[in-house]
Structures are given as C-alpha cells and as structure tokens.
Write a structure and sequence with these properties.
By secondary structure, the protein is of the alpha/beta class. It contains 7 helices and 10 strands. Helix 2 links the parallel strand 2 and strand 3. It binds 2-amino-2-deoxy-6-O-phosphono-alpha-D-glucopyranose. The site of 2-amino-2-deoxy-6-O-phosphono-alpha-D-glucopyranose has 13 residues, from loops.
Length: 260
C-alpha cells in the first residue's frame, strides 16, 4: 500500500537553505511563547538534539538577546538521552542542550527536563513512567521539535517502534550508532542503549515540527512520507498526526516525486 502524496496531512515546507527554514520555525515558537505568556500560561516545548536543530537554537538565542524573547515561562522536555553517559560527558544530550541552548537563555533550571543517562537498570521502568507523568503534569507538549535519523527514528524510537510506544529504554540501531561514531571517536565508544520518549508520547503533542537538511536525509524523508505507517519506519506515524509540518531543505526534499 502506498500512502504517497496528498493523503497524509503532513505539511511540507521546503527551503533553499536551512537558514530561511529556521526563521519560520523560530517565528512559530516565538509567537507561541509570547501568546501563551500574555495569558499567564507556560509553554511546554519538546526538544531534540542532533545537528539538525542547532541553527534553530542559534536563532532562538539571537532573539533572546536582541528581541528579549524570554524563556521564563517555558518548560522543556528533551526527547532522549544515551544510557551510560554522565551529564557532563561531552556527547551527552544534557551537555549538548546546555551548550547549544540552555546556557544562553533565561529558562529556569527547574523547567528543564532531560532523560537521565544514569538510571539504574532496576529503576528504568518507573523512571520512564515518571517522565511521562511529568509531561502530563506540565499540561502536555504544546510543540514538539524533531529531527530524523537515517533509520527512520524520531527521538530514539528505532525500528521496530509502533504508535503505542511510550518513554522507555531502547537498543540503538546499527545505522544510528554508525552515524554517531565520529563524534564518539569510534563505534566502540558509542552507547548501545538510550532512553527515549515513545512514538505515542510524540504524537500526543499539539504541534510537531520536523527538521531535515541535506542529501543524506532525502531517502528517509521520502520513505517517511510515501510509505504507509509502520513500525519499520517509526517516523511514518507522523502521518497520523493532525498538526505536523516538515521544514526541509531542497536536498532533503530531493527524493520526493511531487513538488511541495
Ligand atoms: C539522534 C537523535 C535524534 C535526531 C537524530 C538525527 O539520533 N536522538 O533525535 O533526530 O540524531 O541527528 P542529526 O540531526 O544530526 O541528523
């Protein structure tokens, strides 16, 4: 079965350069934060790591500095973390998020949530349930930012992950570990497991924005949009979400047959 083209509700926004794409996404985030803050409401953002969101985080930092975009009323939940890494490990997502965003904005430390890489095995199930509960207690995700892995993962929901999955520990796909190997100075140093929000956790977000840049993402973007939802390409479940948009550059869009 082919669910290609116009059947899915995902809006595809293509740009010649990621620099213009991240302006659009930053506009959306800024409007959301300001509109909710004006009503004394917090904004709950689901955040992603990887190279894809870095330019967006730089743009948000720029707006914080120049336009006084405040993150005082923002609560964040990160998608995932490598198991076995201390927060101060240079490749931990805790470290990444602080380096790339949190150290440069005015978000209260207590509003930041990143899955821990150091939970004892016996405690992981209850830790993951608590993470889900914390998202619900915050009022649910208003906006979820995503990248996409070449395995078709969102967060670290590796194939096979279905639409009912929740926050849990997973085993990383060989492609994911291979892609991470240079940053870890070799495959042997790449963790084998991670904690990730589930596909269902992501799909509960009111709004989802996926970023993808470059030729290396063209094949998986095409599969994500053209294949029927299945655990083999977890990102395909985004087709079932009513308010998802992809912000991708022309290279990442190059595997799509129909112009967007
Ligand atoms: C990691 C993260 C994902 C991210 C992916 C893509 O696997 N867990 O959330 O989407 O990397 O990374 P990049 O943006 O560097 O291509």
């Amino acid at each position: 079965m082919n669910n290609s083209g116009k059947n899915h509700p995902i809006k595809i926004h293509t740009f010649p350069e990621k620099s213009s794409a991240v302006i659009k996404v930053a506009d959306e985030i800024e409007t959301l934060i300001k509109s909710r803050s004006s009503k004394q409401q917090k904004t709950v953002l689901g955040l992603a790591t990887g190279s894809s969101p870095i330019a967006l985080y730089q743009e948000l930092i720029r707006r914080h500095r120049n336009n006084k975009l405040s993150f005082q009323n923002v609560i964040t939940f990160n998608l995932d973390e490598y198991s076995g890494l201390q927060p101060d490990h240079p490749e931990s997502y805790w470290h990444f998020m602080h380096q790339q965003l949190f150290n440069h904005i005015d978000i209260p430390q207590e509003n930041i949530h990143i899955p821990s890489g150091t939970v004892a095995t016996a405690d992981i199930a209850s830790y993951c349930q608590d993470y889900e509960q914390a998202i619900r207690d915050a009022g649910g995700l208003d906006f979820q930012l995503l990248g996409i892995g070449r395995s078709g993962h969102i967060g670290f929901n590796e194939p096979p992950s279905d639409q009912h999955t929740r926050t849990r520990q997973v085993t990383l796909h060989p492609i994911t570990r291979e892609d991470a190997a240079p940053a870890f100075n070799g495959l042997d140093h790449v963790p084998t497991k991670a904690i990730t929000m589930g596909v269902a956790t992501v799909l509960d977000a009111k709004r989802i924005a996926l970023l993808a840049w470059g030729q290396a993402k063209a094949e998986i973007i095409a599969k994500t949009l053209n294949q029927a939802p299945s655990p083999e390409v977890p990102a395909t479940y985004l087709q079932t979400h009513p308010n998802t948009a992809f912000f991708i550059d022309h290279e990442a869009a190059s595997g799509l047959s129909t112009p967007c």
